[in-house]
Amino acid sequence: MTENFVTFTVNGEARRIRVFPRTTLLDALRWQLDLTGTKKCCAEGECGACTVLLDGRAVNSCLVLAIEVDQATVLTIEGLETAGRLSRLQDAFLAEGAIQCGFCIPGMVMAAHALLAEMPRPTEADVREGLSGNLCRCAGYQRIVGAVLAAADGARS
Amino acid sequence: MSHSFQYAQPRQLSEAFDILDAYGRDASLLAGGTDLVVGLRNGRIAPRMIVDLKRISGLAPGIAETEGRISISAPTPLTDIITDRRIQDHFPALVEAARTVGSVQIRNRATLTGNICNASPAADTAPALLAYGAGVVLISRRGSRLVPLEEFLLGPRRTSLGAGEIAAAVEIPKLSGRTGSRFDRLTRRRGVDLATISLCCLVGSQVTRFAYGAVGPKPFAVTDESGVLADRESDPEARMALLSDFVAQATPISDLRGGREYRQAMLLVLSQRVLRTAIARRDRT
Amino acid sequence: MNGDRVGASVRRVGGHERVTGQQKFVGDIRLDDMLHVKLVTVDCAHARILSINSEHARALPGVRDVVSAADLPNPMPRFGPIYQDRPVLAAAQTRFHGEPVAADIAQTEQSGEEAAGLFKVRYDELPAVTTIAAALDPSMPLVQDPEFRTGPHAKTNLLSEWRFGWGETETPAADQVLDNTYTFPMVTHFAIEPHCFLAAPDQGGVTVWSAVQHPFVLQQVIARLLDLPLAKVRVHAPDPGGAFGGKQHAKYEPLLALLAVRLGRPVRLELTLGETFQAVRRTAFEIRLRSGFASDGTLCFQDAECNALVGAYADIAPRVVSKACYLMCGPYRVPSARIHARALLSHTPPATAFRGFGTPQVAWALESQMDEAARRLGIDRLEIRLKNLARPGEQFIPGDKPADGNWPEALRRAAEEIGWETPVAPGRGRGIAVGVKASATTGASYAIVRLHFDGSATVLAATSDMGQGARTVLAQVAAQELGIGVDQVRIVMGDTAIVPFDLQTSASRSVVFMGTAVLAACGDIHAKLQAMACEAFGLPPESVKVTPGMVRVPSRKLTFAELLSEAFAGVRGEVIGVGSRRGERIASHPLGGPPAFYEFSCTACEVEVDRETGEVLIVKHVSVADVGKALNPAQARSQDEGAAVMGLGHSLMEHLILDERGRILNLGALDYRVPTTKDMPLEMRSLLVENGDGPGPYGSKGAGEGGLFGVAPALAGAVADAAGVVIRELPLTPERIWDAIRSEPPRTGPGSSPESCEPSL
Description:
Chain A is α+β, with helices and mostly antiparallel strands. Chain A has five helices and five strands.
């Protein structure tokens, strides 16, 4: 099987890697770019642990072939911090106590980040809907939803 | 996934047709990938070549409106369909249906044509598209043809997409007169799920059309032209008799998601509910 | 300063790493020259292996080795926490769907996966025991070879049985006798982190990486299997991405350790989510409960027959059965009890520990029965519980540890919070349930605290922080005792070469056991500081007083750092404190000893039922936990919130579905449904009762499991209240509720209670 080059921007940095067609974006991030923040769980688009932003939209990176993202822009959890400062959303997760084991958190935060970019003033129902593709087994979701709403509120003031 | 394949990203339709000619049944078309990549992972499909449709210059994503119809091109993600004002105005039940497909992450990639071409008996968008009388535009080197959806869907994972053909768009004729429509479905949990049953109702002044999904080898539609269902004052027993006839045409099976009897019973329960809502929407406009 | 320590909802230690993606879970670890392992299985539960042809797999580029039972030591190495019954690889037979018969080791995950598909395994499929009835049927095959069994039941599928009880031997008279059977199906943990393991040869020994809750237990297992001294086996236990009991005991670490030594290189195995479902599950229970009540609702007797379906290998499941069934009568006073419990083997994934450790299953039966009694006797369901609930200090199991909390208070608070006395809207109903669990009965936890020259500290404690926040509360304890901020404490966990012994992280024990050890280690530091001050200033002990952060001598007071500076001067140094808590085994006690504390919790909920479709909407969910003292209230409540939603999962939607060949049909997230954000209750409240009556630091008890105990019976009780149907089987899917409603005779009035009806489906 032949490898192809794919060039894309990850967290603001241009990267060029060689991938097999069957390599998913998730595996390329975790193994070739050493960005292990994005997690692998169900690998079939049901759990959201692998959520990244692709050209500004939240997607399950386990269902995207790396080779599809040539010339595209990808944002992962590692790209949310700027110059060592957490984003308002990340800080809200910490402040609201929304994190337990943390494994779902990168995907959850990326999905929430995308939600707030589309919808800066979501209702609680909007947040529940927007995060319904991200499974969590620890937190029961309440504080996660609270964190997203707090971050939205914080952006307004 | 362990299966090896090649990948092509044609820029022109002619390139795409060349590849399809060369690989025949060993080629799979890739739009959003949310069904295809799962199929590759679990070994359900094992193509030698995957043709990415997303960069073909003759096949850009987009929704186009003409006087008589709205056309949704193949690479258009469901998210774009859901947020489009024209779709919301003309085909609200399609928006309702599209919103139930997977999660936000799935809908940002999944496409309408992909959902149809995958032809799962439980495809959520199918009942809405059937109710609205949608058709699929198939293109090939030989030209293009419009196939009504009920003829396009043949059975579980089988469509009438021919060799060398690409589903390029879904076309939906605009409705005339006052109409109301509603899509609903039953699932095992309130969150993201596959449908245990799904259905859509479109009601006009005289004609009522129901389409059902996940209750047979393919989604199907039935029509009442008598006016009984469309009339909110009609005799409830007559209405029930008609609805019972409709749902009797379904052939649900028992599987992981639900038992046959339950599905059959829920078809009637939900049919009554969506009819009520569709009529209310019609009469509000 | 106190906003920062015990009793404060301090920000989670490790939160920053998790929210930035920096936290290294075991699957994120990369070792140089690492090879990838893939398991080879057959597509049924019970098979006799005839031959394994790995020729094509071996020939695939990138494949370094293939291994089957024939390549492992003979006799086949076996392991298990109670019985050493589990082979490292299946040899002549497979005993559950997913039990590996071989493995390949390759350069990349993908080539490993491809190679696994190239094995040709010839096998005869054999009948599979997958239900309790089949396990009890003498004509069905034996799951385990009698040659490897001990005890009187070796030639059956009965693994072990227990009888507990007290009171009159003859069934006492009662005004109302109920006799019902309740079932709790197989469910799986579905932690978001699938299992992943690494192993590497290391200095004549082996190092293993596993997100294991019990690193020292694993160390022992590996040392024995590889015939190595403990000092040569190192276990790195990164914080698990969720565990819930599914990461307590060895699964594939033994295989990896053997492969690492065989290949002389690091090896890695990451299970898919489906493979994870095949590896761990909860023990399924079927409980027939005969209960006698007086007409005023007083409990007269309980007579329970419990059959528990464990998997093909015992794992820790027998302990689940004995511990939970010992408390079959719950937190109630009952003069006479007979409990007969059996653990039955089956050709299914090994049942292991799972949050609650049998208590959710027992509470499902017991609390549903309490509701039934209330309905039959015309007594309010809250009142019947209050009437029978043990009071603080009451010995509710004769001769054993008495009730160590104010349980009626917790129950009353839950009732108040759900609005039990207020009218409920039409179509809606309420339920309430309690549960009690014996925490750890034995164990040992050691902690080392290093007080650094500047007064900051490092705590070495082998508790596993799997999301419950152990790092944070232990840091809070150390911060409190040393008079510093939490941000001046480093917590080191998860490395058997560095951190002292801790038996395990389970049974909500860590605050009590490890918290006490940390507290004791800090006390040791205080004592050492006192001695240092005596020597430095030439004072007798009575003149030196040490309090958190401060040393007082007649002429002055010094901070710890100031004392160290004076005492150690130019050469510097640190003060090392050691602490421990041990609970020794008491052979005469049926469980090996009374529990350090009881974990008691109450759940109440209000639901709306759509009678036509059977769908349930949870309007409000309340949980109340009796925690003694919440060292970190936000974390304690968070755990209960998570437990509540996890409980909703097994109550409404979760079950492993097997076909007649023992194959799990819903392997993976597509068809094994767990709650999402849209399945949350509309409103959820979690409350803590803090009476300072626990044995842990500052009067604390453990927590984290209780929120799960009463969810199913509270929900079922609410559904019965709303829709008039009683269901005794889980999960309460819409279809099951619909089926029960349509089988039910029509109700005669708003207050009529449902006739006792057959379990549906």
